[in-house]
Amino acid sequence: MALADTLLRPSPRTSKDDPESGYDSGESSRASMPDVCWTPRHLQFINERLQQLEPEDILRWCITTLPGLYQSTAFGLTGLATLDMLSRLPAPYDQARVDLIFFDTLHHFPETLALVDRVRRRYPGAKLHVYRPQGLETADQFAHEHGRQLWTTNDERYDWLAKVEPAERAYADLHVRALLTGRRRSQGGQRGDLPIVEVDEAGRIKVNPLANWTFQQVRQYVREHDVPYNDLLDRGYKSVGDWHSTQPVKENEDERSGRWKGQEKTECGIHNPKSAYAQYLREQERIKEEQALQRPLQQGLTVGA
Predict the structure, then answer these.
(1) What are phi and psi of 292, to 5 degrees?
(2) Bridge partners of residue 69, in order along the sequence
């Protein structure tokens, strides 16, 4: 039996008391959206197996295994290849629609926004959820609310407002439990040792189905299947983000070296939850929660006195 078939077959029901089973008991999961949790040993096993599979097989495994599955995309080349692969999966996998989530920072290149429209036309069955900075619709509104060139004066706050907060809002609104991402090891930086499957601090599962592929492999797939892509790619942009922090790259440079050129930064915040600003906000939330818990106690002491 092929390895892909082995991984894709439903597992027999395991005891809820088995700590290594990787499954939550019925008491701690909703029937309509079961929890999926793995021990570190189980996660390592899954990665060892998935490492040997092609991206299409990994996507089939995801659809079979992961509830609440979405694809997070900025319409980069890898995300587009993933979307196309999903559209080509045979029955019964083609019935399991994987919605897209796009974070419109209000500072994307015009070429990126034009690509979004082309993708909508090419893949009409793919539902797209667009999230923007809270309460804002334009770059001018963002500048008026938070100051001009915030990415220069406080880049971590910019990342939080434009990307991280919209992402957390999207995940809560849509009940996202698992995400397909477009990250690959060959992109360099913090992604050099990227696993196929990882679990973030919130317990959310992230799957990088093309983690093993190089930029050349992705580009070849896009060409062979006539997948729409960003026009900036033909102008030397291998990785495209906001217009103010993206530059073309040279042939011998890492494909993400054009992002935040001249800075040590390699991630925007969505995949870097330990940024100083994110930690500051979480600490403020923790303090508020503690104060809310202490308030009834203090009121009770006052009444008793």
Answers:
(1) -65, -35
(2) 178
Asked whether the CA dihedral 136, 138, 140, 143 is positive or negative, the reply is positive
Say which residue the tokens 């609440």 belong to: 68
Cα–Cα dist 222/229, whole Å:
8
Bridge partners (DSSP) of residue 102 are: 130
Q: pLDDT tens for residues 12-50? A: 433 333 434 333 333 333 335 667 889 999 999 999 999
Of 178, 167, 164, nearest in space to 71 by CA: 178
The pTM (predicted TM-score) of the whole model is 0.77
Q: What is the pLDDT of residues 240-258, one digit of tens each?
A: 889 988 887 777 666 655 5
- Close Cβ partners of 141 (under 8 Å, ≥ 6 residues apart): 106
Amino acid at 33: M
237 burial type by CB count under 10 A (0-12 exposed, 13-18 middle, 19+ buried):
buried
295: CB partners within 8 A, 6+ apart: none
Give the SS3 label for residue 101: strand
Which residues are the active-site residues? Answer: 268
Nearest to 86 by CA among 214, 187, 227, 195: 227
Q: What is the H or E stretch that residue 152 is in?
A: helix 150-153
Cα 176 to Cα 187: distance, rounded to the nearest angstrom: 25
